[in-house]
Amino acid sequence: RAKDGGRRQWREFEPAFRSQADRQNQIEHELADALDAGDLEAWFQPQVDLASQEITGFEALVRWHHPYLGPIAPPEIVAAAQAANLADRLTATVAEAACRLLTRLPSLGLPRATVAINVSPREFDLYSVTDVLDCITSAHCIDPALFEIEITEEAILDTLVAGEQLKRIERSGYKLAVDDFGAGHSSLAYLVALKVDRLKLDRRFITNVHQSRQNQEIVGAMASLGRALSMEVVVEGVESEEEANALKALGCQFAQGYFFGRPMPAERIPGWIECRRAATQRQVA
Ligand code: C2E
Ligand code: MG
Ligand code: MG
Ligand code: MG
Fold it and tell me: EAL domain location, by residue (predicted)?
């Protein structure tokens, strides 16, 4: 009976498994053409200073709306890019878009705003991230101090390949952020040795922070840690005014989340900045 049940279950799940594998294969196979055709784009999510409410930068997030599969989630795109040996091209596409935005920001009244891209730890084994980025940022005459690279804590752990690449990131002058901080187990010694500029606290500590004593303790401790190590602290996933106020009171400096602005295509940024300025002026008046 148990065997039968097992077999029945297997039959039931098989089509789903196969279509998942088919989907991955299809995404992998179409990725190169999609990159060539410019179907993958970067959207940008704003970051603000919690105290002054000024816009301090943007994070680039890859988007691919497939003609019939619909929107493909970024982690799926990244996995496909790695499997298809296209991780460097994906990073180059997003970095190009980031540089185009950086070039426009001064004329939008934001000459010091940064733009961040994400690099997943496994990419460090696949190609030289700084070779790709140095080429693009210098072609666009970008000040590397305004170009930020976000890596997850995983990358910090693998010190052999990653350590060398992270040192090159520092030598090239890019800003280095540790993403989803608190979700992994990076060593404080490495954070200091690698001259990490920013800690982006994992969203799990931010959700309902105003109602969770425990999250308040954690976020407060991480904000002091950031100050002690001279690292900027960014909170991500801020969805409400209550959370934003609690985070400011806990000593967090910078924030990102749906409450401030959702990821948007670059062409929508000027209008979004206008709206935001008009709204703050109304508040002051
Ligand atoms: P991440 O770098 O931690 O990016 C933040 C994610 O949280 C984004 O999801 C963003 O849309 C979402 N988010 C922002 N504010 C809020 C909020 O207030 N509430 C909630 N619930 N979510 C919020 P997205 O765009 O789906 O990206 C998911 C992950 O995929 C990213 O997490 C990043 O690790 C990776 N990723 C995205 N773009 C790229 C890329 O170009 N290259 C690489 N290697 N990874 C990327
Ligand atoms: Mg990120
Ligand atoms: Mg640095
Ligand atoms: Mg994150």
Answer: 24-277
Residue 193 pLDDT exceeds 90: no
> Ligand 3 centroid to 39 CA: how many Å?
32
Outline where DSSP puts E strands in 23-113. Answer: 40-49, 55-66, 70-72
Atom of ligand 1 nearest to the CA of 87: 44
CA 8 to CA 85: how far, in whole Å? 37
- pLDDT of residue 14 exceeding 70, the answer is no
Q: Ligand 3 centroid vs 75 CA: distance in angstroms?
A: 26
Looking at all shown ligands, the one closest to residue 120's CA atom is 1
Instruction: Report strand pairing: 147-152 vs 175-181.
Output: parallel
pLDDT digits (tens, 9 = 90+) for 244-265: 999 999 999 999 999 999 999 9
Cα→Cα distances 1→4, 5, 6, 7, Å: 5, 6, 8, 10
What's the N-to-C CA distance of the chain in angstroms? 75
Tens digits of per-residue pLDDT, 195-207?
899 999 999 999 9
What is the sign, positive or negative, of the torsion defined by CA atoms of 95, 97, 103, 109?
A: negative
Q: Establish how many alpha carbons lie within 13 A of residue 230's alpha carbon, considering only the half-sphere containing its beta carbon.
A: 4
